[in-house]
Amino acid sequence: MNESEKHAPVSLRISITDRCQHRCIYCMGSEGVEKFTHQDILSFAEIIRFVQVLKRRFGLATVRITGGEPLVRRGVVELVKMLAAQGLSDLALTTNGQFLAAMAGELKQAGLDRVNISLDSINPDTYRRLTRGGELEAVLAGLAAALGSGLAPVKLNTIVLKGINSDEVVNIARFAIERRCEVRFLELMPIGPAGEQFADWFVSSQEVLGKLSEAFELEPARKEPGSSSRKYLAKDAQGRKGSIGLISSGTRPFCEQCRRLRLTSTGKLIGCLARPEGPNIRPLLQDAGKANESSLVKMISDVLGIKGKRRLFGRAEPMVRIGG
Ligand code: SAM
Ligand code: SF4
Questions:
Q1: Which end of the chain is less enclosed by CB atoms within 10 A, N or C?
Q2: pLDDT band at 4, cuts 50/70/90?
Q3: What is the structure's pLDDT at 9?
Q4: Which of 23, 94, 114, 270 has most ligand 1 atoms within 8 Å of CB, for mutation?
């Protein structure tokens, strides 16, 4: 019996770069992070080898490409093509949207199914402040291009930060519903720079729900298997309807059902964001031999073995390095 027969299938997030044109205040310090060199970063062939083993031995069906900012990695469209050729049931990408206007069409053509766009504010000044220099207009153009190119569904991710964007929750929800996008409000995790400001910035999903319920009728929707978000069907006073999700990593963790793995851009395999280091599997991806595959399967099983045993978050490594 292989691993996929024993358990629910795993899902994988692949960070393809540690680089990003933004320095979001909760994700990176103002100086950014020390960058890896090109040689440190997994090649596309190494990524594909891992995906193939995970698919064959652990029933991998869903992959999300992330970073850093995945659209700054040269050749990302080629990687999407290579991943799409693996026969996955869902191939998604998370992006800050800055380069999406120019790339949405070719990503779709290459086989990408859908995108999540991080949008923490729809106020240009707040957006600039939060991202340390990002232009809201570019993200909005990216969102329009994604909707126009059939990358569906387009989901918006918003981290709610007290005193920074917490007064925008209802406006962002309205903005999403008008564009027929699902918006998901995320609780901040105390990872990287967010750890230092956590007590000042953290807003619980419960508080977000309270704000939303003043503007919308909210009806809990059925939870999708493996999904990290609690969904609500929302209806506003004009009768417009949409879907709103809450991701409550702190107050309502979903560890019991979690089968998610993360592969960092340098080849570390991480089973849980709340846990420290994972093994570096890169040496095992450089040669497709049988001995390597069984060592790799053993390592993957060990990493999956830590699932369900929740610890407090406590790592210093920022999300830009791990892959959100
Ligand atoms: N650059 C892309 C983006 O921003 O969408 C992809 C990488 S980013 C690390 C992925 C997601 O992680 C973003 O939605 C971001 O808001 C989220 N994120 C970063 N730091 C976080 C933290 N401390 N707590 C919760 N989410 C975080
Ligand atoms: Fe870049 Fe995404 Fe981190 Fe913002 S959250 S700094 S866009 S990697």
A1: N
A2: very low
A3: 81
A4: 94
